[in-house]
UniProtKB/TrEMBL annotation, chain A:
PROSITE patterns: ABC_TRANSPORTER_1, ABC_TRANSPORTER_2. PANTHER family: ABC TRANSPORTER ATP-BINDING PROTEIN (PTHR43820:SF2), HIGH-AFFINITY BRANCHED-CHAIN AMINO ACID TRANSPORT ATP-BINDING PROTEIN LIVF (PTHR43820). Pfam families: ABC_tran. The keyword Transport applies. One of its GO terms (biological process) is L-amino acid transport. It comes from the Bacteria. Keywords: Amino-acid transport, ATP-binding, Nucleotide-binding, Transport. Residues 7-235 form the ABC transporter domain. Belongs to the ABC transporter superfamily. The lineage of its organism: Bacteria, Pseudomonadati, Pseudomonadota, Alphaproteobacteria, Rhodobacterales. InterPro entries: AAA+_ATPase (IPR003593), ABC_transporter-like_ATP-bd (IPR003439), ABC_transporter-like_CS (IPR017871), BCAA_Transport_ATP-bd_LivF (IPR052156), P-loop_NTPase (IPR027417). It comes from Oceanomicrobium pacificus. GO terms for molecular function: ATP binding; ATP hydrolysis activity; branched-chain amino acid transmembrane transporter activity. This is ATP-binding cassette domain-containing protein.
From TrEMBL, chain B:
This is Branched-chain amino acid ABC transporter permease. It comes from Oceanomicrobium pacificus. The chain crosses the membrane at residues 12-29, 35-60, 72-92, 98-126, 138-156, 182-202, 231-253, 265-293, 305-322. One of its GO terms (biological process) is amino acid transport. One of its GO terms (molecular function) is transmembrane transporter activity. Pfam families: BPD_transp_2 (PF02653). Belongs to the binding-protein-dependent transport system permease family. LivHM subfamily. It is found in: Cell membrane. Keywords: Amino-acid transport, Cell membrane, Membrane, Transmembrane, Transmembrane helix, Transport. The lineage of its organism: Bacteria, Pseudomonadati, Pseudomonadota, Alphaproteobacteria, Rhodobacterales.
Length: 241, 331
């Protein structure tokens, strides 16, 4: 792990309309592996990802990517710097085919055969439904497409919002393997409610509560401390299994 | 019933509606020659309305922008084409197909070019500051429309303006008992070529792919690294140019135009956009053909209902399909 974080948030405050959602969010995401963002519903996890991506503007604070400030940058600039975003609703273009969805994510509209082959190995359904409308895919296949789209080109950082929501356990297991493989190349900042899924992937963890960072540390430490889990997340891992 | 629905869907589904309306009209009218004349008139009218409506539909779909000023481009297109044809009256009346085509081509190009430039100005100065604010969009584009109408009055005056038709588009073909006006066939073909061009652009080019994606989910397109606002400016310019070309064609169709031409057409344009479904070129074509055909058939069969026919059509379609006939998929 390199000493310099790939992403750094410092005192970030974000408002949505008249509501103050993020009050003071500060944490670092080290380069490599999976860093998990945990928290109760409405704690501000999605808002944090959207603020990083420039989809909502921070009112105060700074966000740095590889040391460069991106707090006020336009979403397109942030994307072009090498940050991909997989939103909670997956952001699939249902009227386009799987191929067209993937082609949009490729900078020049062409595919690197090696990367495409890697995606087809990770998610065989993408090859099978290549020419089908994305709107006709199942929930799990749409999630696979959303992630495939994020890795069709090399990205330094991938922001993923609740990828396991509503998915069957078998698909979640396949997703864990895929994320481990993706994390060998890119850093993943993962928002997740499924603690088991988060624990199996996460190296570092930040817990957000009421728009503030309530805990920042290593995932192993949190996984071993059920009292801390209960305090931070109102759950214990034993109950959650 | 389910099997019938599946069979209809396989045969083309809602795409068959204009054919169904035409067949129903054939039975109601009874006289095939009259029916052919009305059908050609309806198709030509539909294609011209399609030109005017397609850009507005994409603008609606792509950026949720309610542009009530769209009719200004229709009016300006009509008046610019009329003035250009008047300036080139020698070529317009010449007994030479080449000169006729040149005059017509220059007139349509002038209208289209105006639409492009004015569309760019309109988007940057008037629409851009009110993105995401529907109420202000309505107010400011209505205001811009009033200014545009006053400009037309100031430049061309309030009297009706006569529009000369190129010699090769005058007259009719007589096939048996059927009379087919040449201009209507030309208008239909021009509209159809525009539709094919738009469809090719949207389905087979990268820009088209981005526009289709943007209509569905513009935030995600930006998250993939593309500036949707620049794309929107381009769509707005092309949509305005198409409206101006539609206005130019309508001017030749009517041969006498007034400054409120655009406002009159705008009612039909909005009906087409709504019944076709927002953001869909195919939907706009379908809606425009239905409006054109219904207007002509009802005008012949029940003249007193002619004015209300398109409103009734819109109500029936919205009761059946509240999202329109072929809306773009939105996520």
């Amino acid at each position: 792990m390199s000493a310099t974080p790939i992403l750094s948030l410092s005192g970030v405050k974000t408002d949505i309309a008249q509501y103050h959602v993020l009050h003071d969010v500060s944490f670092d995401v080290p380069e490599g592996g999976v860093h998990v963002l945990l928290g109760r519903n409405g704690a501000g996890k999605t808002t944090t990802l959207r603020t990083i991506m420039g989809l909502w503007q921070a009112r105060a604070g700074t966000i740095r990517f590889r040391g460069q400030e991106i707090t006020a940058a336009h979403t397109t600039e942030i994307a072009r710097m090498g940050i991909a975003y997989v939103p909670e609703n997956m952001g699939i273009f249902g009227g386009l085919t799987v191929e067209e969805n993937m082609r949009l994510a490729s900078h020049d509209g062409t595919f690197d055969p090696d990367r495409l082959s890697r995606i087809h190995t990770l998610f065989p359904a993408m090859k099978q439904f290549w020419a089908k409308p994305a709107g006709a895919l199942s929930g799990g296949q749409k999630q696979m497409l959303a992630i495939s789209r994020a890795i069709i080109e090399r990205r330094d950082l991938i922001l993923i919002d609740e990828p396991t929501k509503g998915l069957a356990p078998a698909i979640i297991a396949a997703m864990i393997e895929a994320f481990r493989e993706i994390a060998t190349e890119s850093t993943i900042l993962l928002v997740e409610q499924n603690f088991n899924f988060a624990r199996s992937l996460g190296r570092g963890v930040t817990v957000i509560d009421d728009g503030r960072v309530a805990h920042d540390g290593q995932m192993d430490a949190l996984a071993d401390d059920s009292a801390l889990q209960t305090r931070l997340l109102s759950l214990s891992l034993d109950q959650h299994q | 019933m389910e099997r019938l629905q599946q069979t209809v869907a396989r045969m083309g589904g809602v795409n068959l509606l204009p054919v169904a309306v035409a067949l129903a009209a054939l039975i109601a009218i009874g006289a095939p020659a009259t029916w052919v004349t009305l059908t050609v008139a309806g198709l030509a009218m539909g294609m011209m309305i399609f030109l005017m409506a397609s850009g507005l539909s994409l603008v609606f779909g792509l950026m949720d922008v309610l542009n009530f000023g769209h009719s200004a481009f229709i009016s300006f297109g009509a008046f610019i084409a009329a003035s250009t044809l008047a300036l080139l009256s020698g070529w317009v009346a010449a007994d030479s197909l080449l000169y006729n085509l040149l005059a017509l081509g220059i007139a349509i190009s002038a209208a289209g070019l105006f639409g492009l430039v004015a569309g760019w100005f309109f988007e940057v100065v008037i629409v851009k500051p009110v993105y995401q604010d529907h109420l202000r969009q309505i107010l400011i584009t209505m205001g811009a429309l009033i200014v545009a109408e006053q400009l037309i009055l100031a430049i061309w005056g309030g009297s009706p303006l006569s529009v000369p038709r190129p010699a090769f588009l005058q007259g009719s073909w007589l096939i048996g008992d059927t009379t087919i006006e040449i201009y209507r066939v030309f208008a239909f073909l021009l509209g159809f070529v525009a539709f094919l061009g738009l469809r090719y652009t949207l389905k087979s080019t990268r820009i088209g792919l981005l526009i289709r994606a943007g209509v569905e989910n513009r935030e995600m397109v930006e998250s993939l690294g593309f500036r949707i606002d620049r794309l929107f400016a381009g769509v707005f310019m092309v949509g305005s140019a198409l409206a101006a070309i539609g206005g130019a064609m309508w001017a030749g169709y009517e041969t006498l135009i007034t400054p409120d031409l655009g406002a009159e057409m705008m009612v039909l344009v909005f009906i087409v956009v709504i019944i076709g479904g927002l953001g869909s070129i195919e939907g706009s074509l379908l809606g425009a053909l239905l409006v054109g055909l219904t207007g002509n058939y009802v005008g012949f069969l029940a003249p007193k209902l002619a004015l209300a026919s398109n409103m009734i059509l819109m109500m029936v379609i919205l009761l059946w399909r509240p999202q329109g006939l072929r809306p773009a998929v939105r996520t």
